[in-house]
Design brief:
With 341 residues, this protein is of the alpha/beta class. 39% of the residues lie in helices and 21% in strands. Helix 1 crosses helix 2 (22-29).
């Protein structure tokens, strides 16, 4: 049934909706208004859609479905152009190596999926991975040392394009025998004076300042703390009794540790794909699209709040414990997160 729809239908109808005139759209497309009208009507009748209304002055006004069509058609035509550019680059032999970075706190399974997806459509391409802090990876992309990277936000380099992929809820990490571990969630007031472990401020000063400001706004007082340069160090410090920390929900934990949501806040760790706006291997946009689909499939069937890593406050912030199969690796970013209103 859907085979009737061709790229020309989306191109024609998009132009009609943008120009708000059949005649103007026909001029831009180098065709005639009758032909354009015929194509538009056949498409709408075949799929039982009404994309626009024609007023007495012949002005085209998009319907609610038409407004949605504009966004969808743009993305579809963009994907077509990206696919052709990628195929042409492969044909010319320009892509033989992909230098791909992964942030210190990025889920290793997500990075592995990105590599596997790229190998599917370009098996001969050699992937050169690099692991470092998000800010360092961003600088290397700007300087040309890397092609792209999976990082945790924020990234503020104006030369980079940032494609957000996933949001995971930020939760409290504490010892399983800690008094707060007996509660279904932790209130902000209960964290005051108890957060004793943070990611090293000098590794990402801007993000650290952001974190401290948001903790302050939530009424969470932070005194002196231990600095860690890696997710495993953060868990080790918590286990050794140096205080609580904040991590991504679903992180693989030490057997002596557990996590609890923070009541009343929607703080998330955001993972994104970044690459240079101008210097970019043509296969990267295609990779990002496929990676988004991979994430959507992996989240299929989950509650929307859980799929986004957000707390279900209707249930007091409680959520069923994740059943770890050992595949979910550490993404303990204390700094690269943002508050969701």
């Amino acid at each position: 049934m859907n085979d009737f729809a061709e790229f020309r239908h989306f191109k024609y109808l998009l132009e009609i909706l943008l120009q708000e005139s059949l005649r103007s759209a026909a001029d831009h497309l180098n065709t005639t208004p009758p032909n354009l009208c015929k194509q538009a009507l056949e498409f709408q009748e075949r799929f039982h859609l009404r994309l626009y209304q024609k007023r007495r002055d012949n002005r085209i006004v998009p319907t609610k479905t038409g407004i949605a069509f504009i966004a969808i058609a743009r993305k579809l035509l963009e994907a077509r152009d990206e696919a052709i550019a990628a195929l042409q680059a492969v044909e010319s032999g320009k892509i033989d190596t992909l230098r791909l970075g992964s942030g210190t706190f990025v889920d290793k399974q997500l990075f592995r999926a990105a590599c596997d997806i790229h190998r599917e459509f370009l098996p001969s391409c050699v992937i050169k991975p690099e692991h470092a802090d998000s800010s360092d990876l961003a600088n290397e992309i700007v300087s040309g040392k890397l092609h792209a990277a999976l990082v945790t936000l924020p990234v503020n380099e104006f030369e980079l394009r940032v494609e957000e992929l996933r949001r995971d809820r930020l939760v409290v990490c504490l010892r399983a025998d800690h008094p707060l571990a007996g509660k279904p969630f932790v209130r902000p007031a209960e964290l005051s004076g108890n957060i004793g472990v943070l990611y090293h401020p000098e590794r990402h000063p801007e993000a650290h300042a952001q974190l401290m400001e948001r903790l302050k706004r939530a009424g969470i007082r932070v005194g002196e703390f231990s600095s860690a340069s890696h997710p495993t160090e953060m868990q080790h410090f918590v286990k050794e009794g140096f205080g609580l920390t904040l991590i991504r929900e679903g992180t693989e934990l030490d057997a002596d540790l557990t996590t609890r949501p923070i009541f009343g806040v929607d703080w998330t760790v955001d993972t994104a794909f970044i690459y240079h706006r101008e210097r970019i291997p043509p296969t990267i946009p295609v990779l990002v699209r496929h990676l988004r689909r991979h994430i959507a499939i992996s989240l299929k069937g989950k509650d929307p709040t859980e799929a986004l890593g957000l707390p279900n406050l209707k249930n007091g912030g409680r959520k069923k414990p994740a059943q770890s199969d050992g595949k979910d690796s550490a993404q303990l970013n204390l700094l690269d997160w943002k508050e969701r209103a």
